[in-house]
Design goal:
- The structure holds two protein chains of two kinds.
- By secondary structure, chain A is an all-beta fold.
- Chain A contains no helices and twelve strands.
- In chain A, the strands form three sheets. In chain A, strands 2, 5, 6, 10, 11 and 12 form a six-stranded mixed sheet that branches. In chain A, strands 3-9-8-7 form a four-stranded antiparallel sheet, with no helix packed on it.
- The radius of gyration of chain B is 13 Å and the shape is globular.
- In chain B, β5 and β6 form a beta hairpin.
- In chain B, strands 2, 4, 5, 6, 9, 10 and 11 form a seven-stranded mixed sheet that branches.
- By secondary structure, chain B is mainly beta.
- Classes of the chains: A mainly beta, B mainly beta.
- At the A-B interface, β6, β10 and β11 of A face β5 and β10 of B.
Chain lengths: 113, 114
């Protein structure tokens, strides 16, 4: 069975500080991995995804994530937080043979001025 | 190219009424997925449809919930005899193929049952 764990439901960082949002997954087969951002009362916007190839993936708005198979992790990072980064972030996995995404419970990011 | 369109954005229903949520996929997309987001939780898969066919409904409650994606028109998620526990945000996603490497989400319909 597939599952996604996001450690820390709430993360606060100072403006300009490093952002690190953690995601670990459980999957019986190599998964595809995604990070989505959700602003208040909005839908989900894709930040980045890993399917194959290079394990360090760069996305929009300066975010990147690294797929580490040995650690079953796909943590999201950004070197310098901006006020506009405040939002809910969701990690998700899917399988080549599946019909759906499996989402984590989300991490709410607060950026302190 | 318009994105995934959902309407209404907000829907208020009294207990016992019916709720109809609509989703128009992106142009060229024939695969539609419905997800439900309860407060403080992630999105949970409900159903996967491809034009006129339900492919996977493993996440749908057995009673009161149904979905369709007719040959013409939007996909509809229908909830009969709504209860307070149905209050949630319902998201539709579409893709050009089976949802494993890409999905585009709508802005959701926020259902409130009073």
């Amino acid at each position: 069975a597939q599952s996604v764990t996001q450690l820390g439901s709430h993360v606060s960082v100072s403006e300009g500080a490093l952002v690190l949002l953690r995601c670990n997954y459980s999957s019986s087969v190599p998964p595809y991995l995604f990070w989505y951002v959700q602003y208040p009362n909005q839908g989900l916007q894709l930040l980045l995804k890993y399917t194959t190839g290079a394990t360090l993936v760069k996305g929009i708005n300066g975010f990147e994530a690294e797929f580490k198979k040995s650690e079953t992790s796909f943590h999201l990072t950004k070197p310098s937080a901006h006020m506009s980064d405040a939002a809910e972030y969701f990690c998700a996995v899917s399988l080549n043979t599946g019909n759906q995404f499996y989402f984590g419970t989300g991490t709410s990011l607060t950026v302190i001025p | 190219n318009a994105g995934v369109m959902q309407n209404p954005r907000h829907l208020v229903r009294r207990r016992g009424q019916e709720a109809r949520l609509r989703c128009s996929p992106m142009k060229g997309h024939s695969h539609v997925y419905w997800y439900r987001q309860l407060p403080e939780e992630g999105l949970k898969f409900m159903v996967y449809l491809q034009k006129e066919n339900i492919i996977d409904e493993s996440g749908m409650p057995k009673e009161r919930f149904s979905a369709e994606f007719p040959k013409e028109g939007p996909s509809i998620l229908r909830i009969q005899q709504v209860v307070r526990g149905d209050s949630a945000a319902y998201f539709c996603a579409s893709s050009s193929n089976r949802m494993n490497t890409e999905a585009f989400f709508g802005q959701g319909t926020r259902l409130t049952v009073v």
